[in-house]
Structure to design on (398 residues):
């Protein structure tokens, strides 16, 4: 499935799309994508809406990417975890197949799978959601310069070595890559009136 | 009135707020502010809504600034022209008095005052709006390296020399300062689904 580990030369200006969601204030939750050149420069912003606790995130995000004028340039998509808008789980293998763009999931800490599994019992299609989570694959650690700066990743269509390079290239202001840090500022700022917290 | 020309040492990481509006799609028009450190790094996003062709932009933008957690750090506010959301004119002298922060208005080209004056005839309070436009003061040219990169500015509470320094420091990707370029990408991207055009 994700056996293609498209290893590529990573230029300093590689185009990366970072996607975050906004606060859970209503049934429709805004997701914001930022198109960055490396960690330096934002080239564009895209937006779409997904359903709180729905199962439409994968399709809607894929469509948002494919209709963007930046689609042909984007070399990797970064997600802030795989559950958006509550428990709207993103199928990263499907996303890679549908868009042809490698996917990197970034997490500040290891997810608590027992807690997630337990919460999914409240969903009729909880098992389907759990399978999507399992399909996202192994969680790997990317060690920062200091141990406390480590982050965790999952990936589709890209080698760990390339993930490592892209994370280092783009994490210039914190241990979170700029495309995700800025997508978070936008999503919270627009919905809450002022940005807050960390991606 | 704007006799105080607070000249200050301009650090590379000076905090600048750039404000742009979104497309005129409804009665309420979103304005987006980006808080930048110099031209490099976005620290935050703020948002508010003003009325299409209303006269509430000055008050609402001042309140948006004063309630922000970044208020104490912001050293200059940049506007993309002084008419937002149609003909909702921003009083930059009033803004400087209310916030204590110098205001820099940035324009790609000299505004067509005859056209504006003529359009204002459709407003009962057209004369009041025209006075606010006059109060924004002289339009000065900031020459780029190439003549075609020149921009035009108006200002309140700041010397032309300081304006020049701040424009040069922050215009690292185009002839438009980063806080305005990025505010424009966010405002159009969020409202239209994908960012477009130039600030």
């Amino acid at each position: 499935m994700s056996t293609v580990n498209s290893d590529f030369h990573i230029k300093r200006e590689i185009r990366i799309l970072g996607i975050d969601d906004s606060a859970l204030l209503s049934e429709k939750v805004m997701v914001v994508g930022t198109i960055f050149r490396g960690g330096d420069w934002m080239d564009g912003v895209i937006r779409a809406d997904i359903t709180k606790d729905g199962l439409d995130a994968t399709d809607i995000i894929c469509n948002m990417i494919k209709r963007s004028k930046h689609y042909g340039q984007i070399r990797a998509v970064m997600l802030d975890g795989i559950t958006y808008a509550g428990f709207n789980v993103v199928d990263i293998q499907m996303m890679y197949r549908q868009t042809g763009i490698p996917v990197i999931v970034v997490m500040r800490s290891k997810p608590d799978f027992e807690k997630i599994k337990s919460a999914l019992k409240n969903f009729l299609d909880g098992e389907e959601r759990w399978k999507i989570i399992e399909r996202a694959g192994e969680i790997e650690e990317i060690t920062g310069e200091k141990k406390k700066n480590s982050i965790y990743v999952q990936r589709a269509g890209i080698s760990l070595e390339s993930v490592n390079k892209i994370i280092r290239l783009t994490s210039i202001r914190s241990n979170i890559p700029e495309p995700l840090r800025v997508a978070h500022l936008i999503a919270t700022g627009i919905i809450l009136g002022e940005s807050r917290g960390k991606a």
